[in-house]
Amino acid sequence: MSPDVTVLYDTIRWEEKALIEAGKKSGISVSMVDCKKLALDLEKAPQEYGTVIQRCVSYYRNLHSTAALEGMGVRVINCLDTGILAGNKLFTHMLLKKANVPTPHATVAFSKDAAMQALESCGYPRVIKPTVGSWGRLISKLNDRDAAEGIIEGRESMYPIYQIHYLEEFVKRPPRDIRAIMVGDRIVAAIYRKSDHWKTNMALGGVAEKCDVTKEMEEMCIKAKNAVHGDIVGVDLMESEERGLVVHEVNNTTEYKNTVRVCGIDIPSLMLEYAVGRN
User: Fold this and answer.
1) Structural domains of the chain in order of their starting residue, each with its CATH number
2) What pTM does this model have?
3) CA spacing 20 to 30 A to 184: which of 82, 83, 131, 144?
4) 64: which residues sit within 8 A by CB, 6+ positions away?
5) Cα(145)–Cα(43) distance, rounded to whole angstroms?
């Protein structure tokens, strides 16, 4: 018998366990598939998966398993387009601009010399980010030329993706940002992520507090979600002192543990109900 929903994962986190429990509560049949054990014969019809909720942490495993399943006719949330577009900060930035969603000012440079020249032109501080990455890893604040030279020189010896130098405005804001969880065309819950450090990622010690959703925030998040063709995403926003709300990231396989804990919203059940409705 075909499950209603298949959760495709490569690491069992709180979020994946919560989806299992939500299925038991709601009577939605959930199959858990470990992508590390998955082999797909691309010449055959796929087994019955229902709708697949893509939860692989590995960026490349996520993209390639989604591409294979979609190519075989399986519906995957989020789709391959979302994995590619939301998974790359440069791609996301350009799509947000096209959708008229405010986003931090940014520059991209394709060599150390070009990056240093851009920094001299736009000034310090600036934040350098890998175009592909998560949990705040390899994101650095460049306060001056010496710091920039050292960090960029190190990146020049790394894998080619890290030699694409994405330089973002250091946004003047309160010591927090906002994570809004989108299921379809609405924010189901949002939190502030507060920290004494300029990085607010929960993986780096940020503290979560409930954030009340405004009409402006929801309209902005809907545009951001649609820009990357998403279904279930996390949208990260900052409160710029100069420009108001700006979107700096859209998360393809968003974590929601702390949002559930702080807001008391049953996000995994909402995700399953949405996935079943998309069958």
Assistant:
1) 5-85 (3.40.50.20), 106-169 (3.30.1490.20), 172-277 (3.30.470.20)
2) 0.93
3) 131
4) none
5) 54
CA–CA distance, 124 with 28 (Å, rounded to integer): 52
Spell out the SS3 assignment of the chain.
Answer: CCCCEEEEECCCCHHHHHHHHHHHHHCCCEEEEEHHHCCCCCCCCCCCCCEEEECCCCHHHHHHHHHHHHHCCCCEECCHHHHHHHCCHHHHHHHHHHCCCCCCCEEEECCHHHHHHHHHHHCCCEEEECCCCCCCCCCEEECCHHHHHHHHHHHCCCCHHHHCEEEEECCCCCCEEEEEEEECCCEEEEEEEECCCCCCCHHHCCEEEECCCCHHHHHHHHHHHHHCCCCEEEEEEEEECCCEEEEEEEECCCCCHHHHHHHCCCHHHHHHHHHHHCC
Distances (CA, A) of 8 to 13, 88, 202, 249: 12, 21, 23, 23
As to burial, measured by CB atoms within 10 angstroms (0-12 exposed, 13-18 middle, 19+ buried), residue 248 is buried
Say what the pLDDT of residue 107 is.
Answer: 98
Count of C-beta atoms within a 10 Å radius of residue 154: 12
Find all residues with CB under 8 Å of 76, minimum gap 6, and list them: 8, 51, 52, 54, 66, 69, 70
Query: What are 141-184's pLDDT values in tens digits?
Result: 999 999 999 999 999 989 899 999 999 999 999 999 999 999 99
In this prediction, residue 204 has a pLDDT band, given cuts at 50, 70 and 90, of low
- Residue 47 confidence class, pLDDT cut points 50, 70, 90: confident
